[in-house]
Design goal:
By secondary structure, the chain is of the alpha+beta class. The protein has a single domain, classed as 60s Ribosomal Protein L30, Chain: A (2-Layer Sandwich). It has a five-stranded mixed beta sheet. A hairpin with a 4-residue loop joins strand 3 and strand 4. Helix 1 crosses helix 3. Bound molecules: zinc ion (ZN). The site of zinc ion has 6 residues, from loops. The site of zinc ion (ZN) has 6 residues, from loops.
Length: about 130
């Protein structure tokens, strides 16, 4: 299934480029590659983040990369102090939990410049960015 926007399209959809958009987008790409949904309704996502900007920008990244959308009701957001993205393929019953690594979060909270935060995230491999369970 080829569902989802390119990252350039995701930036247009969201309106600006930021580190949290990229984090959500990358989580979605990992989930899609791992869980291999066959249909646009197969994948569900539960986003657990503090429900405020900039963290909530990650929601748009996930919507853009996975086609889990508010309109289809297959993404839900739980206001939380966690930084976790839980994906479920309801057809295969497989799931994947991606948790932003604590050291990455701590570093991001201390970076003041958006460009610096972006290049930091871009320089991290998937499993340096997230831990999975
Ligand atoms: Zn944003």
């Amino acid at each position: 299934m080829n569902c989802g926007l390119t990252f350039e399209e995701a930036i247009k959809f969201h309106g600006h480029l930021g580190p949290w958009l990229l984090i959500g987008y990358r989580a979605g790409v990992i989930a899609k590659n791992r869980l291999k949904p066959n249909d646009i309704h197969d994948l569900r996502c539960i986003v657990k983040i503090p429900y405020k900007i900039p963290y909530s920008c990650s929601i748009d990244g996930i919507q853009a990369s996975t086609c889990c959308t508010l309109g289809k009701g297959n993404i839900i957001v739980e206001n939380s102090e966690d930084f976790e993205f839980i994906f479920i393929n309801i057809a295969s019953k497989e799931s994947l939990k991606l948790k932003l690594r604590k050291n990455v979060l701590d570093k991001l909270l201390n970076i003041k410049s958006i460009n610096e935060a972006l290049s930091y995230i871009m320089g991290l491999g998937d499993w340096d960015l997230f831990e999975s369970s």
